[in-house]
Amino acid sequence: MTTSGFNCGLDAALAVIGGKWKPLILFHLAHESRRYGDLRRAIGNVSDKMLIQQLRELEADGIVDRLDFKEIPPKVEYSLTAFGQTLAEALKPLCAWGTEHMTEVEKLMSRRGTSAAENAA
Amino acid sequence: MTTSGFNCGLDAALAVIGGKWKPLILFHLAHESRRYGDLRRAIGNVSDKMLIQQLRELEADGIVDRLDFKEIPPKVEYSLTAFGQTLAEALKPLCAWGTEHMTEVEKLMSRRGTSAAENAA
DNA sequence: ATAGGTACTTACCAAAAGGTGCATACTGGA
DNA sequence: TCCAGTATGCACCTTTTGGTAAGTACCTAT
Asked: What pLDDT band is residue B87 in, cutting at 50, 70 and 90?
C-alpha cells in the first residue's frame, strides 16, 4: 500500500499517452506546430470527436499547447509544450523499437485478430 | 494507404505493451523469473483472469517465456525472452520519465477523475 | 443561393477491456 | 475430513473506449 498510485514510472507514462490517437498526435507535433485540420489530415482516419478529445486531454496534461488565433474562420494551432517535448524524448527509444520490429509486431497482431492493418481503410 | 498498419513505431510498441497490467508484468520480470503466484502477489491487485490473460498475450507475442514444471501441485515460472528484454530496454527511458514526473502525473490523473490512486485498494 | 471549409460540440451506440466469482485436479496440513 | 494453496478456465456483467452522424457559427467561392 503505497501513497503513490503507480507502481512504476511506466504506469504514469502510459496514463498520459494511453489513448488511441495520442502517440500519433505526439508524433506529428514533435516536429512542428500544426493547425487542427492539418493535423487531422496528417493522421488520416480520426473522427473530429476523437481528435478533439485527445487533444483536450493532452492540453489538460500540459503536453500540448493550444493557440487560438481568434479569427473567423477559426484558426487554431497545436504544438508541444516543453513538458511535452521531454515526453517525446523519452518516447524515442520505444518508437525506435517499434519501428525496428514493426513487421514482427504486425504479424503478431493480425494473428490474434487485432486489426492493426485495418487502419488503412 | 500504407501497406503497414502502423504509422509510427510507437503504435507498434503500444500494441504490445498496451494492457492494463503488461507494464507491471514487464517491470517485475525484468529483474528475474517469477512463479505465477509470486508475480500476482508482487503486483498486488490483479485478478487471476487478468494476469493469466495478459501473460498469455505476452507469451504469444514472444515477450515472456512460460516454463511449466509439470509438477503437482502446479509450478510455473515466467521470465522475459531475449525479445522481451529488448523491449524492456526500450522502455527504460519512458519508465524513467514516468518516475521523474510521477507526482505531477498523479495530480493530473486525479484532476480528471481517473482513479490512479485507487490502485492501493 | 448553395456548397464547402474552418474548429468544434453533442447525442447516441457498438465494441473492447476489465472485473467477479465459481470450478477444476491434486496435495498437504490441521 | 475439511480447508488452503497451486495455476488456470469459464460464464457473466459492468465500465471504459472508440465510432458515427448530426448540428453550430461564420466565412468564401461558385
From this structure: very high
pTM > 0.90: yes or no: no
Contact (CB<8Å) A11/B98: yes
Distance A9 CA to C25 C1' (A): 40
Helices (H) and strands (E) in chain A, counts: 6, 3
ipTM for this prediction: 0.85
Give dist(CA B89, CA A25) in Å, integer: 24
Select the CATH number that applies to the domain covering B12-119 from these four: 3.40.50.720, 1.10.10.10, 3.30.70.270, 3.40.50.1370. Answer: 1.10.10.10
SS3 B73: coil
Low-confidence residues in chain A, pLDDT < 70: 1-5, 113-121
The architecture that CATH gives domain A14-114 is Orthogonal Bundle (1.10)
Q: Which of A21, A18, A58, A65 is nearest to A43 (CA)?
A: A21
C-alpha A95/C-alpha B14 separation (Å) is 9
